[in-house]
Amino acid sequence: MIKTNNHPLILYKYFTKDIFKYFLLALFSLMILIFFIDIIELFRRSSNKVGVDHLVEADIFDILVMALLKISGNIQKILPFAVLIGSISCFNQWRKKNYYIVSKTSGISLWTILSPILISFFLIGLVSVIVLNPFTALLNKKYESLQTIFFGQKNLKTFSFDTKGFWIKQISKKSYLLINAGKINEDLNTLFDVNIFVYDQDQVFKKRISARRAVFSKNKLNLFEVRLTKNNSELQILNQLSFFIKSNQSNLNVTTIEPENIYLLDFPIYLKQMQQYGLNTSKHLLYFFKLICQPFLIISMILLSASLMLRSNERKIELGIVSLSLVVGFSLYFIGDFIFALGSSEKLPALLSGFGPTLIGLFAGCYLTSDIDEGKRQ
What we know:
alpha+beta, 2 domains
C-alpha cells in the first residue's frame, strides 16, 4: 500500500508530466510549421536571385541547411506560445476529467498544484536563456554569412561597428578610402577621431589621414584639423581637407551586431561600448530585458491559462473559454511587442518597456489564480 502522505507527491508528478506532454506536442507542431514556412520563403528568395552573376545559386541542400540554422532561434521565439497552447490544452482536459475538482475536495489548492509546474517551466525558461541562447547567437551568425553568399547584402553604404569604432569603404575618384571613426553623430552626419587609409586602384597603400572631425555633405567628405602621413612617413598638417566621393552619403547609418547574434553574458560589455561611441542602445537594451523576462513570461502564460480554463466546472468543451484564453495570452505577447517598439523609438523608458508587459501578465495571472482559490474557499 502507498502511504497517504505520498499521494500529493505522486499527484504533482502526474500533473507536471501531463502538462509537459502537451507542451512538447505544441512545441513540436509549431516548430514543424515554422520550419516549412522558412523553407518556402527561402525557396522564394533563391528563385528571385537566379541569374545574378555575383551571387552563388542556392540548391535544395543549402536551403535546408539555412532553415535548420534558424530552428534554435525559432524555439526561443515560440516557447511562450508553445507553453500557452500546451497549458490551455492540458487544463481543458483537467476540467473535462474533473482533476481540479477532485484535488480541491481533497484539500489541495490550485497554487499547490501549480507550484511544481511553475518551477519546472521556470527552469525551462532559464535553460532557454542560458544554454540555448549561445547556440542561437552562433547559428544566427552562420545563417547571416550564408544569406550574404546566396542573397547578397542589404546595404553596402552603412557603417559597421565593432570594438575599434566605425568602418566604411568609399571611392574617391581613382582612390579607395577605408574610413574609421571613433565616434559618430548620425543626426549631424559627423564623424569624430577619424582615420582614413587611402589606397590606389591596385590596392597599394598611399597615405593615412587623421582628423579630429569629418562631415559628410553631398558627394564630399570634409575633414577638419587634419594630419596627413604619406607612405614615406612625411607628415603634413592642414586645417581642412575635402574628398570627393562617388556615393551621396546624405545620412549616416550604423550597422551594429543584431541583438539576436549577441550572447547573453556579452550584452553588458557591448552595451557599454555602444554608449561610449555615442550609439542608440534602446533596441539592444530592450532585447536584453526581453531575454531576461522570458522565464517569467512563460510562468505568466501558465497562470493566465489556468485561471481562465479552470474557472468553469463544466465538463463539456467551452469554445468561448478556450478562445478567451488564447486571445489573452497572444494579446499579452503582441502588446508586449508594441510596447517594445515604443521603447525602441524612445517614446517610453527602456526599463518600463522591457519589464512592464511581463510584470503585468505575471501579476494578472497571480491575481486571477488567487481569486479562484479564494472563491472556492468561500
